Predict the 3D structure of the following.
Amino acid sequence: MSVSEGKVLRRSRRNRIVAGVCGGLSEFFGIGAFWFRLLFFILLLPGGLPGIVPYLILVLIIPKA
């Protein structure tokens, strides 16, 4: 299954902890939300900004489901 088979990137309403970004990415790419959450957590470790800034940008860019 390719990414372009009618899937639309939206923030998840069901699989969310903060804003649904990781849940929406997991539904779109077919990867577990755990891996996206782990990625953002790892990006938070060197001082916060490398993880918070991309997450906030995605919150603004990705529409709600």
Q: What stands out?
A: The CA atoms of residues 25 and 31 lie 8 Å apart. The chain has one domain: 7-65. The mean pLDDT is 88. Helices lie at 21-29, 33-44, 49-61.
